[in-house]
Amino acid sequence: MLPAATDYYRLLPEILAAVFGTIVMLLEPFLRREHKAALSWLGMLGAAAALGAAVLVRSDAGPAFFHLIQADPFTFFLRLLIYATALLVMLAARAYLDRENLPHGEFYALVLLGSVGMGVMAAAAELVTVFIGLEISSLSTYILASYRREALRANESALKYFLLGSFATAFFLFGVALVYGATGTARLEQVAEGVASVLLLKLGLALVFIGLAFKVASAPFHVWTPDVYEGAPAPVTALLSTAPKAAAFAVLLRIAGTVLPATLLWFWVLWGSAALTMFVGNLAALVQSNVKRMLAYSSIAHAGYILVALAAGTEAAYAAALYYLAAYALMKLGAFTLVAHLAGRGERRLTLEDYAGLARREPVVAATLSLYLLSLLGLPLTAGFLGKFYVFVAGLRAELLGLVVLAAVNTLLGAYYYLRVILYMYFREPDPTYEHAAREPVPAGTGLVLAATAAGTLLLGIFPGHLMRIAELAAASFR
Amino acid sequence: MTEGHLQTYVPLLIHMLVAMGLAGALLLASRWVGPRRPSRAKLQAYECGIPPLGDAREPFAVKFYLVAIAFILFDAETMFLFPWAYAFRDLGWFGFGAIGIFILFLAAGDIYLWKKGVFDWNR
Fold first, then answer.
1. Which of A85, A230, A350, A465 is 20 to 30 Å from A394 at the Cα level?
2. Concatenated DSSP letters for A249-270?
3. ipTM > 0.85, yes or no
């Protein structure tokens, strides 16, 4: 029994990304110093090729490699999200790497190879395959987190990320082993069928949940997040807070959608984790004076909102979760990219004070950042609002009144710290003794990313129909 | 496999607990009961030990770590080569192609390391 051509075809996006990533890595040492930045084109070409392949494969849904891989509308949605994120991160990173005097080639290679792992996670229909994807994605992101080797903060960030991440992976793997022991299979579709030991299965699923909860940074497994997001280079933070999180949510969604025992067992776990995550993220964000750290806590809070949809557990809720993931990725990518630009050389300008009076100095930049923040807050006409709206409606339909009320309370809590940044930018004068950075124009790549994410945030907020239809189709693949 | 399957491990668990409890109890007992009168001669290294020189926690050159990582690369390669060699006849040309691609990827990593000067020991 050998894999057929269709098997490779259904894994084409990941294969292309892996090949391009390897080529970028191979070319890097052969190029002269001044030519290395050009590798960003090759890296982006790789991500674009993977995106194209994802669209191509869409029409030919089905299992591949003996049901280890499942290329269905759900996989399609996440592949779009992951590879588009990788593309935007690479586009914005070039100017950043130049400014910080960091090596170019390895960055693009690692982003591509990491997205291979995330793509595998999104496509995996079997737990060991999920694990392989998780490892590929984690190993790349560990290195990316330590990319500013000279900076102390970056080293702290990378070490914490590596240790806690490996710990989480071990939890996940042990869970997989127990699930296999209890059922004799790691294929998600079959897990519910031949259960020999309910106790082992429950234990295994609980450990699997813990491993994934680490990766999506949901409370009480979130402690690593603020330090890692703050210490990592800002473009890497943009990547970390979006694509790997989406991939881990993809696994959670696929397990919750296909493995009935997990759906039942996880309900209160998801409920509790959602409530706790929202409160921990929002309450801690209230007291932050460092904008990057504040955004890190905000991304914890957002994981909580998505968990509300998972707790609801209906098809509409899964569609809402997917929509939320896409909207969230757009605004977080934009916000972190802007923070990376405004922080200046060495990422020194990160506090609220640095944002005082920004609207007068750079009105367009301030307006763009305000748009992301308002979307993160969930103001109407932005993607963030509709994401929350769909999640809340799905929660109410599933009779989760309590949890939805908690989520609404949290949205109000969030208003304080998002609006505070806007307040600083528009109504606060900087300290007269404050030394301004020389005004730097927004680099072309960064500008493109900002334009794309800002336009996306508005478009998804006003015309959600098209993406929502894709998300609904994706959520229907578990039926 | 049934629910009672786990029960076969109970003797093992008891054995483990007894072993750990006994070891712990003996250590504690010797600590409480035994007299301790350390002297210079007693605290010295004896038999095959040698007197320690300096601190063990000295920084190593990064090149050692790089070589260690390269070692893992080839370690993993052999890990996959053995099962392939074992099933060589059954897998045929497909297996040959698959392992070839795998080795190509590893070779790419090797070339990268080489060009970066990891194997240049005098650096």
1. A85
2. HHHHHHHHHH-HHHHHHHHHHH
3. no
Best A14, A24, A132, A200 residue to mutate vs chain B (most B CBs within 10 Å) = A200
Contact B109 A25 (CB under 8 A): yes
| pLDDT tens digits for range A247-271 | 999 999 999 988 877 778 889 999 9
Q: Domain tally for chain A?
A: 1
Q: Which of A135, A146, A197, A198 to mutate to test the interface with B (most CBs of B within 10 A)?
A: A197
Give the Å distances, CA to CA, from B113 to A3, A22, B69, B108, B110: 33, 13, 10, 9, 5
Q: How far is B82 from chain A, CA to nearest CA, in Å? A: 20
Q: Where are the domains of chain B?
A: 3-43, 62-115
* Residue A271 domain boundaries: 5-478
Interface A-B, measured as beta-carbon pairs within 8 A, has a size of 29
State pLDDT tens for residues A326-375: 999 999 999 999 999 999 888 888 999 889 888 988 899 999 999 999 99
Q: Domain B62-115 belongs to what architecture?
A: Up-down Bundle (1.20)
Contact A86, A236 (CB under 8 A): no
Report the C-alpha gap between A340 and A154 in whole angstroms. Answer: 14
